[in-house]
Design a protein that fits this description.
The protein has about 220 residues and is an alpha+beta fold. Helices cover about 45% and strands about 20% of the residues. It folds into 2 domains: about 80 residues, Nucleic acid-binding proteins (OB fold (Dihydrolipoamide Acetyltransferase, E2P), Beta Barrel), CATH 2.40.50; about 140 residues, no CATH class.
């Protein structure tokens, strides 16, 4: 069973047994994976802060064929999001990004554009100016949401006003760091929010509700 090394974002950790964790992580070359990090809950372990939410790491693991859970050996921290954790709105945004990745990304399917999207949004949050921080992380959240559903194939035609459609297209073309502030009319925000909520609810919540209904049959 050869060892593999992948650049990855840690998405979520679950307690497993007395000293272990189940780790969900998103790799650049293998897509979203889940693995067992043995001894990760002990004070001295080989993972350190690399298992913190949305840390970017080099994950060392072993993967058996036809086995869902990989075996995690260690990880090397590349970029931490610790500087964002002390800011409550940014912390909520990190939780949202991780949850959306969990729900939208199918396992074992690489998506280089999605990986770069997550990295660029996190970088934008870390490098935000004081003025940008004062307005909260909502530019990053909206940009990530719009692109996430687009890259996942869920974003249908936007049946909204011309102004809102123009803003949406601008966000899909322009890198987040180069977006310019603009005045929105009273109808713009509800238009975009309605389009995004419709896409997410239609493709994610309906699937989850259907799964629960099937379990009761």
């Amino acid at each position: 069973m050869p060892s593999k090394v992948s650049e990855a974002f840690t998405l979520r950790c679950y307690p497993f047994r007395e000293a272990d964790l189940i780790v969900s992580f998103y790799t650049r070359d293998q897509g979203r994976l889940r693995g067992v990090a043995r001894g990760a809950r002990r004070l001295k372990n080989s993972f350190g802060s690399g298992l913190e939410r949305l840390s970017m790491v080099r994950m060392h693991y072993r993967q058996k064929e036809n086995v869902e859970l990989v075996q995690l050996n260690s990880c090397d921290l590349i970029e931490s999001q610790f500087s964002l954790a002390s800011d409550y709105p940014s912390g909520v945004a990190l939780d949202y990004f991780a949850e959306l990745c969990e729900q939208l990304l199918p396992p074992h399917e690489p998506n280089e554009k999605f990986f770069r999207l997550l990295g660029s949004v996190l970088e934008h949050l870390r490098n935000a100016t004081e003025a940008e921080r004062a307005h909260g992380p909502w530019l990053s959240v909206t940009y990530f949401t719009l692109w996430a559903v687009r890259l996942s194939g869920f974003l249908h035609d936007l049946r909204i006003s011309d102004e809102s459609r123009e803003i949406a297209k601008e966000m899909l073309i322009t890198p987040i760091g180069k977006l310019q502030p603009r005045d929105w009319t009273q109808a713009t925000a509800p238009d975009l929010r309605r389009a995004l909520i419709d896409a997410v609810e239609h493709h994610i919540e309906r699937r989850l509700i259907t799964a629960r209904v099937l379990e009761t049959l």
